[in-house]
Amino acid sequence: MTTNRPTGPTTPTPASALAPAPVAVVGLGPMGVVLAETYLRAGHPLTVWNRTAARADDLVARGARRAGSVSDAVAAAEVVVVCTKDYESLYEAFGDIEVPEVPGRARPLVVNLNSGTPEEARTAASWAADREFGYLDGAIMVPPPMVGSPGAVFLYSGPREHFDSARPVLEPLGDPRYLGPDTGLAVLYNTALLEMMYANMNGWLHAAALVGSAGVPAADFAELALGWFAPAVLAPEGLRAGAGDLDRAEYPGELGTLRMNLNALDHIVRTSREVGVPDDQPRLMREIAERAVAAGYGDLNYLAVFETFRTAAGSGAAR
Ligand SMILES: NC(=O)c1ccc[n+]([C@@H]2O[C@H](COP(=O)([O-])OP(=O)(O)OC[C@H]3O[C@@H](n4cnc5c(N)ncnc54)[C@H](OP(=O)(O)O)[C@@H]3O)[C@@H](O)[C@H]2O)c1
Q1: How far is ligand 1, taken at its centre, from the CA of residue 29, in Å?
Q2: End-to-end CA distance of the chain
Q3: Domain at 290, CATH number
């Protein structure tokens, strides 16, 4: 797909739907290996590079080409998928890379799937621009076994034209979702979703420890906690219905107030202490509710805590 193009273009090559584009995967940890395997299965000419070269052996045995250096990998590909530990490791891997202009071939597009912060992603976009690479930032929202399945959501942000041109290379990995031109958006969404995951997970783990203090096995508690309570009381539909209230900053307290919830949080702290389970997690939640009450939201419903979380840029006024 690199033939018949004008010489010396400086923008990334549009990935053609006619033939699978040559792809490089840089970084072959547990996730990078699965990305590379997915490209092999999808028929993309694949070049791989990893700091520890031996991690590429199996892929090479199955048809991938081993690059001797990152610049070798970049020179061989139209789209370079980077999947190392973080942004710092991206810079270390690429080093002082110099990719020669290849007549008839555009500068490659770097699709960076590392984890980090929004500002790190924006800095990486500038780093790529300095080297005349196209740059798209991304975040993988699923564990390795789900990669390549229709439910595997990958988030992307950066110039829309890069997302559109790379789409045929992004689609084999799962369900690509474009979030917007701000390069930091993919990792911002990623960290927000991960925060939800850890908060939920820790809620379950601490609750299981509380009940476990009375000798109840987690598997027994799961029947009620995960079989009924989570779907009935913490139902995503309910949270989704309340999302509009967050945007409107409307938190009517007729059915229950934040002050009442503060009382419940105090009971969780005192119960934790009573049964010998660490109380730091419920103490933090109680402190958050106390702060909201002190800010004047006590007679509104619990969602008014959002007013103490949101940044000045997105602030509402609910008191
Ligand atoms: N695994 C998951 O479930 C999952 C899910 C979603 C997103 N992710 C993201 O995917 C990325 C890769 O994750 P992973 O699970 O494959 O393992 P990882 O431990 O986060 O990353 C391992 C990879 O990074 C490379 N690396 C680390 N430091 C380096 C450096 N200074 N220079 C060059 N390469 C360096 C390693 O090379 P060596 O082999 O030489 O050590 C290896 O290829 C991470 O950003 C992670 O957050 C992972």
Answers
A1: 5
A2: 60
A3: 1.10.1040.10
One domain, residues 196 and 183: no
In a domain, 89, yes or no: yes
The SS3 assignment for 25 reads strand
Pocket of ligand 1 (CB under 6 A): 27-32, 50-52, 55, 83-86, 89, 92-93, 113-115, 140, 143-144
In the predicted model, is pLDDT for residue 184 greater than 50?
A: yes
- Cβ neighbours of 224 (radius 10 Å): 12
> Do β-strands 153-157 and 134-140 pair in parallel, antiparallel, or remain unpaired?
antiparallel
Q: In the chain, pLDDT over 70 holds for what percent of residues?
A: 91
The model's pLDDT over 187-207, given as tens digits with 9 standing for 90+, comes to 999 999 999 999 999 999 999
Torsional sign, CA 264, 266, 271, 272: positive
pTM beyond 0.85: the answer is: yes
Q: Which of 28, 55, 70, 84 to mutate to test the pocket of ligand 1 (most atoms within 8 A of CB)?
A: 84
Convert the pLDDT of each residue in 64-105 to its tens digit.
999 999 999 999 999 999 999 999 999 999 998 877 676 777
Same domain, 38 and 139: yes
Whether 9 maps to a domain, the answer reads no
Does the pLDDT at position 319 exceed 60? no
> For atom 24 of ligand 1, which residue has the closest CA?
84
173 and 239 housed in the same domain: no
In a domain, 11, yes or no: no
Kindly report the length of the chain: 319
Amino acid in position 6: P
